[in-house]
Specification:
Layout: H1 28-35, E1 38-41, E2 46-50, E3 56-59, E4 66-68, E5 82-90, E6 101-106, E7 116-118, E8 121-123, E9 133-139, E10 144-146, E11 151-159, H2 172-186, H3 193-198
Antiparallel strand pairs: 1-11, 2-3, 2-10, 4-5, 5-9, 6-8, 6-11, 7-9
Length: 205
């Protein structure tokens, strides 16, 4: 089957013209990721300065807010573009979820503009209540002020359950047919098909 026939799969009608200069507000999967769960924000400014050799230093008013721990996860890979010294947001609270629920702690999703990058972890928060710290890296060569109110940690509760996956080998004809059906569905003239006919609202209270 000639895949060139599927060039109409790009739902340009939902983007107005050629899809250029479109706000991410139109992409609900992108937006849902950013608004999922709960967000923790800085309660004060963080000031990042650099030594002559480029080593970052962070200063703040409340000395209990952060801590620097160079030995914390000593073998963690260094993200490309970030200084190898990592810091940690000190936790002054713990998480408690109902039986069978864990939490995902991660960098604020789709926030590529932030000058730091967090690691990601999962905690069985129904069984243990941890304080500890949440590690992050500063962008290499970056200095300035990270203002109070900046999101620094996204927390998503989820139910633990075993998952069995299945790999199904389909005929190319079947795959092509499903792609065509999907294309026709998303090319409806009213636009915004995903939002109007697929998307469901999430609530985190």
């Amino acid at each position: 089957y000639n895949t060139n026939k599927l060039e109409f799969l790009n739902p340009v009608n939902d983007r107005g013209t050629d899809g250029a200069n479109v706000s991410t507000k139109m992409c609900y999967p992108f937006r849902d990721a950013m608004t999922a769960g709960y967000m923790y924000r800085l309660t004060e400014d963080l000031h990042v300065s650099l030594d002559p050799d480029g080593k970052p230093h962070i200063s703040w008013e409340n000395e209990d807010f952060l801590m620097l721990d160079k030995r914390y996860i000593a073998d963690i890979p260094i993200p490309t573009g970030y200084h190898p010294i990592h810091f940690g947001f000190r936790m002054h609270w713990y998480y408690e979820t109902p039986p069978g629920y864990s939490i995902l702690l991660t960098h604020p999703m789709n926030r590529f503009d932030l000058p730091f990058l967090n690691t990601t972890g999962i905690v069985d928060s129904d069984k243990v209540h941890l304080l500890g710290s949440f590690p992050f890296f500063i962008a290499d060569g970056w200095e300035g002020t990270i203002p109070a109110g900046t999101p620094y940690l996204q927390v998503l509760p989820f139910k633990r359950e075993n998952w069995d996956h299945e790999i199904k080998i389909s005929e190319q004809r079947d795959i092509y047919g499903k792609m065509v059906d999907n294309a026709k569905f998303y090319r409806q003239p009213d636009g915004g098909v995903y939002v109007k006919k697929v998307w469901s609202r999430r609530e985190y209270k």
